[in-house]
Every structure is written in structure tokens, then in C-alpha cells.
Specification:
heterodimer; A: Aldehyde Oxidoreductase, domain 4; Aldehyde Oxidoreductase, domain 4; 5-stranded mixed beta sheet; 14 helices; B: alpha+beta; Enolase-like, domain 1; 4-stranded antiparallel beta sheet; 13 helices; 12 strands; 20% strand; binds flavin-adenine dinucleotide; binds iron/sulfur cluster
């Protein structure tokens, strides 16, 4: 039986529930000492004076500030995934204060409590400047940023002309707030130097090799002297993809005190020491004919960036490719420099913000034209990417809409707002569709077939809690023709064959492809050996007829067979090793446009007097290509939907308008959904094998599932109340 | 967090003696509030006097037909205590509306009474806050104040007392038993917590050396017509935007007696004698409820982000009264608000 496609439980499940899985901050390194940080209490200005004497006298190993921390090299430009810094402004290098919570001093002591206590003894005087925050006033000073990930602006056809001539027009502004990842596992680094100048790091990272490159460049260490390990990650969501200041600080501290140094961020520090999702203010203009066919789309977004970086939330990205518009499509992004730390990718960056605006606007168009929201989307479906003009590799949008709607029971919906009731409550239904970027990145892997018939997969990929260990085992097991239990997977170590960042939902399709190719290569080596090796059981010319199953090579239509173990023994080999170098053409250069798709359906219950919105049920239909493991895929979908419920109803990192600091820096102030907020979630996978996306046929899934939730629920809220909420989150005062 | 001394008291008298002799010390019970605040450097006690093993963990019937609840009874044990469930269901309900199961398993009754405000500025030592540092100013007044008070505020502080349990205790007219170096005293619930006035740093009228030893419930528990309605941003595990404890005695289609207490709106659980008087003798219908609700909120004042709470509180009062009058109290397991 094929392992791919089976709902296999996580291979690391029992390690995790019994506490044996080793997470970075929990790994005990003998002789390790602890670092504690002092952070700026102001958001803008400079350090006028810093008095570290009391801390130094507190029996600590070292106290660092901009006055004595060694200088680093500037972060490399332009920014690249291959050497990714989280933040371009490096810690403890000068006396400037650019954001609240900026690290300004570090204490290292034998014990954590000593370091933390001594940190409270450091006295800082500031020259305080008025911070600039992201608000209605400052957005007027938005600027055109340089390109970062994709082109900043796009224009196909003449969108404005298409809109101007349209029979029906929608023009609205939508806003999404700042949000933080709030991974359960805090960021942590333990840094160890060897006498020969080599550096070993346990680091919470989604990008081992990128981290290694960046650290090498910024700290001037040869790349081959750096080893980074991260066996398990307790949630990444993009927030652990790049190198943040605490990692650099831990490395320099370890060098200075000549001891391994552990630095783990506190929950509150996770709001300013690492990235967050930047707020957006988006304007959308749609034009359509009376039949709902789009004649033009214009989508523009403004987001905040720090004074020293040009991070862009590409919120208008999705409008480039989701729907066809006969006249044209134009998008643009601007940023405002404010006093804050650098935002970063957060599940699902760009798309989850843009779709809230675009798919809310589509719902507004459905009401304006009187066309059913599903029908409206079917009318504007397209087989060609409007942005690049390339055909989509696969696009099961129709299937998502039609099969999802059938499962949900959409046809019994009464379209009039406030028309469905249950006691005091209004019941309502909303939908939204989605397109999600697919990445093609290079990855390497090594597969070893052992003499006992077991196999080892090695690749420098990551398990963020997503099930990478499990799905890689399935891929290798099927390809080698062995039972999944025979396969061991090793991830999370730069000494393994290099892989790409585990971001952008790219791991299954790309790291997975490298495992597939390495396993194929190992299997083919075995077949060649069985054809040409010592006492070969098969003869030349029979290669194409050899099958592998249950660890045994068998010639079709015969009873001639040999197990991997016997084959290796016969040839006096301890094992067979094969490596693969998956090096695909980047997605934007291929002949086809590759994206994932979804259509989702939400039923909500609104208490119109109290303004309370609760999700009643939810159906998600996803085209993520071939599904390798329906169980881990479903888990991703559930997590994504809940993530989206948080986005639309609860999450918001609030900045004090005068102090310029994030205020609600803990799980009690930053609300995410609880179990009681989540009903039964019904997940459908409707995609097919996509050979352009990956040799495995899989497309990106993890982030896909978090995207269309917000507009679907916001659209349902409109259906319930007749109120269109264009500023997230939909907190109850907006509906009272 | 700064270093501190630690001592475990074995008797009430020892606890009080240790406290009186250790300037800057604090009692610690479940630690679910105090330890968080110490980690944030908001509380910087010189010493912790651990009272968690004191023999104050029983629930006993009093000669007067009420209940005496030891200060160290766990929140969850009290919520599920058969006598409380049967005779004081509004208290059980309020306890279950608070925090999470894990926290309720740790949290003591005394600690719940003395838990500190959740005003975000109070928690952030980099910001001015009169409650944390007298005279430094109130950042919430002109800042983010969605969770802050609308009743009984002062120019110095607009914080709310975050407890759910205390709202029910206010409605039930409990009494607080305390012991200090000068002996024992009993404080009426309404006199226990304070309004901020000019001294927001003081949450209550407990003297520095006094230990809460228990809570006394009077005989009347309003077990037929009650409700504890908590309005919050998510279905569970969130502090109240507004909460309402209602206890009614009905007879002949009329309200004989009404008790109404609000949480999430003021520096203490909020009672309004005028509104309660306006309910008594009236028939239990929507118009009556709306009149009472309007009275409770007539002096309410919003500060921008929290102004909606005036309307929300009014509507919540009406809803809670109708739940109580109808004998359909808010369920804390099925979170749906009918
Ligand atoms: C994430 C989170 C969510 C929460 N949500 C809610 C909620 O929704 N509703 C709600 O009501 N509460 C909520 N709480 C608060 C919780 O109820 C309190 O933390 C708890 O009741 C405190 O009890 P404790 O025994 O742990 O107190 P401790 O933390 O030990 O002490 C708290 C304070 O009381 C003092 N103290 C303790 N016992 C005595 C005594 N016998 N005499 C004198 N002083 C004493 C201490 O010195 C300290 O100042 C939440 C807490 C957390 C952490
Ligand atoms: S409301 Fe009270 S607790 Fe909050 S900032 Fe003002 S003084 Fe401090």
C-alpha cells in the first residue's frame, strides 16, 4: 500500500506529548550561562547616559551596551532569502533609539535570575524625541519604497479606464491592524564557541542555512565554521525565518565571556525583539458590468516600516492574479517610516491582508449587482494569470467554489441581510475565495539504504510543528518501496544537505521533492546493483521491469526477487547512499503560473444587541495540489482557519499613540481564539497532481488555509447585520 | 524580577507577625497574579510570606445559616462545592466565568479578592501610572482605555477591578474576615474595595499587615432567580468588558428584592442602590429592566475607546435581569448567550 496519501499520525507525536522532543530553549548545555536584556523604555531619541556600574558589581560575567559590544558588519544589501536579516538595524551598536523595546544593554551571569536582577540595576537616561506612529496623519507622508520581494507596483491594461466605464463601481478603504505571531515557543539561542573559532548554535529558526549565511556575514565568521541546529520548532509562522538581534547578541556574548550563552526571549520581549505583521490601510476600486464581470481592479496599500528598513506588506499582491478584469488591473504599495521594530512575514503574509480587502469588496460587488457571491466568482474565474499572461498550472477554483458550496449547503441561503434568525440571534453565511503564491526553491537531500533494510533521510529542512518528519518518511518509504516505520528522518542541522527556508508553505513541494529525488536515486542505485553487481539476480535489460515493495526488488511476472538487505550483503556493502540536488526554475520564470486556491464558507451567529459574533460552522475547500498526508494536511487547515478567526475577530497589537509602544504584550492582552470559539471545521481537498509545482504534485497548503477566513466571516457579518466592517478586528463595539 | 526573601507561615498569627516585621513584604497564595506582576517588575516585594499552607481551606456552615469560606479555598473547589452550587449558584457561576480551569485550580479566594487591575499601563513599567507609581500620571486617560472604567472614576485613575467572583460576592453582600496585628475585624463587602479617588495606588481598605482569613456569606443565596452574565471578546478565558451579577426574589409576578452588581466597569464591583430600589415592587418585564439599567449607567462616563461600554453595560443589565427573572441563568459551560 502506498504511504503517500495515507492519514499517518505524526511520527514525533509521542515525543512531543511525553515532553521528550527537544526544543531549543530546553536543551541543557553544560557550562551554559544566561543573558538578560535591557530594553529601551522610549520609542525615539538617544541614550544620553547609561550607568552599568551597579550591574557590574552584582557578580555577573559581563555587562554589554553600545559602549563595549564589538561592532558588527552592516547587514548585506539587497535583502535576500539567502542571507536574511530580520532587522537591518543591529543591536548595541550606537546610542540611537529608534523604537520602544529596542535592546540597549545585556547582562550575562551564571544564573538566569542573577542576570535578570542585574539587568534591573542598569540606569539609563534618555534624550527623548516624540515618536512617529502609524496613524491617519502619518500615512499622508507615505513614500514609494524600493522593491523588496516582488515589484512594488503593477499595471496590466488600463484599470482606471475599465473602472470609469463600468456600470457598477465599488470604492472602499479597508484596514488591518498590527499583529504578532505569538508562537507558543519563545525565540531562543544558545551559542557555543570552540577553541578553534568554530561556532555552534541551538537556535529557534525556520531557516538554518539563511541564518548561517547572515551570521557569517554580519559577524565576520567563515560559513564553514558555523553549525546551527533546530530539531523541533514550537511554531514559526514566519517569525523565526530571519535572524533577529537576540541571536547576534547571544553569539557575541558567548565569545566575550568564553562560555556557552543561552538567551531566551520573554513573552513581552517577543513584541519588539522580533518581527510582527504590519498594519495596512488598503483602498480598492472595482468596476463591473451588470452581469458582475469585472472591468477593472485597482488595489493600493500603505503599511508602516521602521525608520531604518523598507519592509513592505504586499497586501495588493493577490489582486494581480485572483480574478480576471477585462479593462485591467493596477496595484501599488507605499510605506510610512515610523518608530517601531521591523515587521516581518506572518502567516499568511501579504495575502491574508489583501484578501480581506479584495474579497470583502467582491462581496460588496455581489450585493451591488445582485449576483450570488459564488456565481460572481465563477463569472470572473480565469485559466490565465492576468498578471503574467501565463496559463495556470492547475487552478481548481471552480471545484473549490462548487464542491465547497455543496458541502456547506449554500443554496438554502437567503441573500437578504438580517433575514435568517434563531431566537435573539441573527444567523448568516459568507464566503470568500483565494489565490496563494507557490514558491519553487532549491533543496538537497541524502537517502541511505541500510543493510538491515531500514533507510535514513537526511535534509536540512525544519519541522515547525507541521509534520515534516512524517511526510518526508512517507515520500521516502513509497519511493524506496519500504514500510514507513523503516524510515528515519533527520532534519534541523546545517551539517545535513542544505535545504531552503521553511516558509511560504514551500517545504512539502520543494524539500519534499529533494527527498523524492534522493530516494529515487538510492532505489535506482539498488536496481543497478541488482542488475550488474556481484551474483546479480537480474540481468541487463530487465531494469524497467523491476518493482520495489516491502523492501524487496522483484522482477515483474516472475518470482525472482531480492531484499535490499541481501543485495547489500551480497555485494559486501554496508549501505547505499544517494544525494539529490533539486534545483527548479523559480516559479516566476517557468512556463506556467503556479498558485494554490481555496473557497471557504462560514456561518456565524450574531447577537445584534450585544454585538457578539461567534462562528457556528465552517467549510473550507482547498486546491493545494496532491495531498501527501490528509491528516497532517487537515491539521494545517484547522490551524489556519483558527488563525484566520483570530485575525478577523480578535487579534490586534495596540500601540499607545503618544508613547509609541506595543501595550498588550502577553496572551492575556493579545487575544487569540480559545477552544470555545471554534466549532466543527469541515475540510475538503479538491486539488489534483500539479507537476509544475513539484515532482510530488503538491502545492503550498499551510498558509493558504489562513487567508480567506477573514473576508468570509466579515462577509457573513454583513449578511447577518447589514453592517460592512472594513476595519479589523470585528470587535463587538463595531456591531452594537 | 528582583530578588526577594521567602518565608512560609504556619499560622495566621505568624503570617501577620512576619508581615508586620518585614517592610515591603507581600503575602503569596496561589501566586497566579503576584508572580506575573513580579516578573514584569510591577510588584517588587522584598519578601514573600507564603500563606498557601495555612489551615484556611474549608467551607463551613455558620450558625446564622450562611457559609464561611476560608481564604485559601481554591477558586475551582469553591465553584464546585455542593453547598455553593445549590445555595449560591450566582457565586459558582461567576467563579466559573473567570480565568481558565488551570488558573482556578491554583487561585485562592483571598488572592482573587486582592488581584490587581489589568490596565495595560499598570503592567508596563515604562509608562506613567498613578496606581503603580503615585503621582506619575495616568496613561490610560488619554491612551488606550478600552478595558477601563466608566463608573466611579477619578482624574487619577480609571482602572477596573478585574474579578468575576467579587461581582457575585458584592451582590450577595458577603463579609470579609481579616486579621492583623491589632486583631480581627469584619469588613462589609461594599467597604472592602475602594474607588480610586486621589489614591489609586490603594485598591482596598485592608491595612498593610492584615491577612484575609475568609469570606462570610449571609444566609440568602437567591438560588432560583439569578444570573452571572459576562460579556467578553472571546467565549472563554478573557476578562470582562462588562459583567453583571443579578439576584432577584420574585413573588406574584413582581420583584420583591433585587441585587445588581456590575464588573468591568469600575475600580470595585459596582452596586447602585437607586437602581435596585427602582426594580423592587415592579413587575419583572423589559420596561422595568430598561429603567433600572438606565439608572445604573446614568452617571457613567466614557474615555473614548471605552465609551461603548456604557451602552454595552446597559444592554447587559437588561439581558441579565431577564435571564434571572426567567429562571434561565447564563450557562458557563454552554457559552451561548440566550
Ligand atoms: C491569564 C489570566 C486570566 C485571568 N482571568 C481572570 C478572569 O477572567 N476573571 C477573574 O476574576 N480573574 C482572572 N484572573 C485572575 C485570577 O483570578 C487571580 O490571579 C487569582 O484569583 C489570584 O489568586 P492567587 O491565590 O493566585 O493570588 P496571588 O497571586 O497569590 O496573590 C494576589 C494578591 O493577593 C494577595 N493575597 C493573597 N492572599 C491573600 C490573603 N489571604 N490576604 C491578603 N492578601 C492576600 C497577594 O499579596 C497578592 O497581592 C486571571 C489570571 C490570569 C493569569
Ligand atoms: S487607569 Fe489607573 S492603573 Fe491604568 S494607567 Fe491610569 S492610573 Fe494606572
Amino acid at each position: 500500500m502506498s504511504a503517500i496519501g495515507q492519514p499517518i499520525s505524526r511520527t514525533d507525536g509521542s515525543l512531543k506529548v511525553t515532553g521528550r522532543a527537544r526544543y531549543t530553549g530546553d536543551i541543557r548545555v553544560s557550562g551554559a550561562v544566561h543573558a538578560a536584556l535591557v530594553q529601551s523604555t522610549i520609542a525615539s531619541g538617544r541614550i544620553a547616559s547609561i550607568d552599568t556600574s551597579a550591574a557590574e558589581e552584582a557578580g555577573v560575567l559581563g555587562v554589554f551596551s553600545y559602549r563595549n559590544l564589538p561592532r558588527m558588519n552592516p547587514t548585506p544589501k539587497p535583502w535576500s532569502h539567502l542571507h536574511p536579516h530580520g532587522q537591518g538595524y543591529l543591536p548595541l551598536q550606537d546610542d540611537k533609539i529608534h523604537y520602544a523595546g529596542q535592546p540597549i544593554a545585556m547582562v550575562v551571569a551564571s544564573k538566569l535570575d542573577q542576570a535578570v536582577q542585574a539587568a534591573t540595576l542598569i540606569k539609563v537616561h534618555y534624550e527623548v524625541a516624540q515618536p512617529v506612529v502609524f496613524d491617519a496623519d502619518t500615512t499622508r507622508a507615505a513614500i514609494d519604497p524600493p522593491q523588496f520581494l516582488w515589484p512594488v507596483a503593477s499595471s496590466v491594461g488600463d484599470a482606471d479606464k475599465g473602472i470609469a466605464a463600468a456600470a457598477v463601481k465599488i470604492a472602499e478603504t479597508y484596514a488591518t491592524p498590527d499583529r504578532h505571531h505569538n508562537q507558543m515557543e519563545p525565540h531562543a539561542t544558545t551559542a557555543m564557541w570552540d577553541a578553534d573559532g568554530s561556532l555552534t548554535l541551538y537556535d529557534t529558526t525556520q531557516h538554518l542555512y539563511g541564518a548561517r549565511e547572515l551570521i557569517a556575514m554580519v559577524l565576520g565568521i567563515p560559513v564553514d565554521k558555523i553549525t546551527i541546529m533546530c530539531e523541533f520548532l514550537g511554531g514559526g509562522f514566519g517569525g523565526k525565518a530571519y535572524v533577529w538581534p537576540h541571536t547576534l547578541l547571544a553569539i557575541l556574548a558567548a565569545k566575550a565571556v568564553r562560555r556557552p550563552v543561552r538567551l531566551q526571549l520573554t513573552r513581552a520581549q517577543m513584541y519588539s525583539m522580533v518581527g510582527h505583521q504590519a498594519a495596512t490601510i488598503q483602498t480598492i476600486a472595482l468596476g463591473a458590468d451588470n452581469g458582475g464581470k469585472l472591468t477593472g481592479i485597482r488595489h493600493e496599500s500603505i503599511s508602516p516600516a521602521p525608520v531604518f528598513d523598507n519592509y513592505i506588506e504586499y497586501a495588493a499582491l493577490s489582486s494581480r492574479s485572483l480574478w480576471a478584469a477585462s479593462g485591467g488591473i493596477a496595484t501599488n504599495h507605499k510605506i510610512v517610516h515610523v518608530n517601531r521594530n521591523t515587521p516581518t512575514a506572518m502567516r499568511s503574509p501579504h495575502e491574508a491582508l489583501g484578501h480581506f480587502a479584495l474579497e470583502s469588496a467582491m462581496d460588496e460587488l455581489a450585493y451591488a449587482t445582485g449576483i450570488d457571491p459564488i456565481e460572481l466568482r465563477l463569472v470572473n474565474d480565469t485559466a490565465t494569470d492576468p498578471h503574467s499572461g501565463r496559463p495556470f498550472s492547475t487552478r481548481a477554483m471552480r471545484k473549490c467554489l462548487i464542491e465547497g458550496a455543496a458541502r456547506f449547503g449554500w443554496e438554502s441561503r437567503s441573500p437578504t441581510p438580517r433575514s435568517m434568525r434563531e431566537g435573539r440571534h441573527l444567523i448568516s453565511e459568507g464566503t470568500a475565495a483565494e489565490i496563494y503564491t507557490h514558491w519553487r526553491w532549491p533543496a538537497k537531500a541524502r537517502v541511505t539504504i541500510n543493510g538491515d533494510g531500514s533507510a535514513l533521510v537526511e535534509t536540512g529542512s525544519h519541522d515547525l510543528g507541521t509534520g515534516t518528519y512524517t511526510v518526508m518518511r512517507q515520500v521516502a518509504a513509497d519511493t524506496l518501496g519500504v514500510a514507513p516505520e523503516k524510515v528515519t528522518v533527520r532534519l534541523g542541522d546545517t551539517r545535513l544537505p542544505p535545504s531552503h527556508a521553511s516558509i511560504g508553505s514551500a517545504t512539502m513541494a520543494n524539500a519534499g521533492a529533494s527527498v523524492l529525488l534522493a530516494a529515487e536515486s538510492a532505489r535506482d542505485k539498488a536496481i543497478r546493483l541488482a542488475l550488474t553487481g556481484r551474483d546479480a539476480p537480474f540481468t541487463r535489460g530487465q531494469g524497467a521491469d523491476i518493482r520495489v515493495a516491502e523492501g524487496t526488488l522483484t522482477l515483474a511476472h516472475s518470482n525472482v526477487s531480492i531484499s535490499y538487505g541481501d543485495l547489500l550483503a551480497r555485494n559486501g556493502l554496508p549501505n547505499l547512499v544517494a544525494e539529490a540536488d533539486y534545483d527548479p526554475v523559480p516559479e516566476h520564470e517557468g512556463p506556467k503560473a503556479i498558485f494554490s486556491f481555496s473557497a471557504v464558507f462560514a456561518e456565524v451567529r450574531v447577537d445584534p444587541e450585544l454585538g457578539i459574533v461567534r462562528l457556528n460552522r465552517f467549510v473550507g475547500a482547498y486546491d493545494a495540489g496532491r495531498i501527501i498526508n490528509p491528516k497532517t494536511a487537515r491539521s494545517q487547515a484547522i490551524g489556519g482557519i483558527i488563525w484566520g478567526v483570530g485575525q478577523v475577530l480578535l487579534e490586534q497589537s495596540e500601540t499607545d499613540p503618544t508613547l509609541g509602544r506595543f501595550l498588550n504584550r502577553n496572551y492575556s492582552g493579545y487575544l487569540v481564539p480559545t477552544n470555545a470559539d471554534i466549532p466543527e471545521l469541515d475540510i475538503l481537498f479538491v486539488g489534483d497532481f500539479d507537476e509544475e509545482a513539484s515532482p510530488l504534485g503538491a502545492k503550498g497548503l499551510g498558509e493558504l488555509t489562513a487567508v480567506s477566513v477573514a473576508p468570509a466571516i466579515a462577509n457573513a457579518v454583513f449578511h447577518a447585520t447589514g453592517k460592512r466592517i472594513r476595519r479589523l478586528p470585528i470587535s463587538l463595539e463595531k456591531l452594537m | 524580577m528582583i530578588n526577594f526573601q521567602y518565608a512560609r507561615a504556619v499560622s495566621v498569627s505568624e503570617a501577620v507577625r512576619l508581615m508586620a516585621g518585614t517592610p515591603g513584604a507581600k503575602f503569596i497564595a496561589g501566586g497566579t497574579n503576584l508572580v506575573d506582576l513580579m516578573k514584569m517588575d510591577v510588584e517588587r516585594p522584598t519578601a514573600l510570606i507564603d500563606v498557601s499552607r495555612l489551615p484556611l481551606d474549608t467551607v463551613e456552615e455558620t450558625p446564622g445559616g450562611g457559609l464561611h469560606i476560608g481564604a485559601l479555598v481554591r477558586n475551582s473547589d469553591l465553584a464546585y462545592h455542593p453547598l455553593v452550587e445549590r445555595r449560591y449558584p450566582v457565586l459558582s457561576s461567576a467563579l466559573l466565568a473567570g480565568a481558565s480551569q488551570q488558573l482556578r485550580n491554583m487561585a485562592s479566594i483571598g488572592g482573587n479578592l486582592l488581584q490587581r487591575t489589568r490596565c495595560a499601563y499598570f503592567y508596563d513599567v515604562a509608562t506613567p501610572c498613578n496606581k503603580r507609581e503615585a503621582g506619575s500620571g495616568c496613561s490610560a486617560l488619554g491612551g488606550l482605555n478600552r478595558m477601563n472604567a466608566i463608573l466611579g472614576t477619578s482624574d487619577n485613575c480609571i482602572a477596573v477591578h478585574p474579578s468575576d467572583m467579587c461581582v457575585a460576592l458584592a451582590a450577595l453582600e458577603a463579609k470579609v474576615h481579616v486579621t492583623g496585628t491589632r486583631g480581627e475585624r469584619v469588613i462589609a463587602f461594599a467597604d472592602f474595595h475602594r474607588l480610586p479617588e486621589a489614591e489609586p495606588q490603594r485598591d482596598n481598605n485592608l491595612a498593610a499587615d492584615e491577612l484575609v482569613t475568609g469570606i462570610e456569606l449571609p444566609q440568602r443565596g437567591f438560588e432560583t432567580h439569578y444570573s452571572y452574565l459576562k460579556i467578553r471578546d472571546r467565549s472563554s478565558y478573557a476578562f470582562a468588558l462588562v459583567s453583571v451579577a443579578v439576584c432577584l426574589e420574585l413573588g406574584g409576578g413582581r420583584i420583591r428584592e433585587a441585587r445588581l452588581a456590575l464588573g468591568g466597569v469600575a475600580h470595585k464591583p459596582w452596586r447602585d442602590a437607586g437602581a435596585e430600589a427602582a426594580l423592587s415592587g415592579q413587575s419583572a418585564n423589559e420596561a422595568t429592566f430598561m429603567r433600572a439599567a438606565a439608572l445604573v449607567l446614568s452617571k457613567a462616563k466614557g474615555f473614548g475607546h471605552n465609551t461603548f461600554k456604557i451602552d454595552l453595560a446597559r444592554r447587559a443589565v437588561v439581558r441579565a435581569l431577564s435571564q434571572a427573572a426567567g429562571g434561565t441563568p447564563q450557562s458557563q459551560s454552554n457559552k451561548k448567550i440566550a
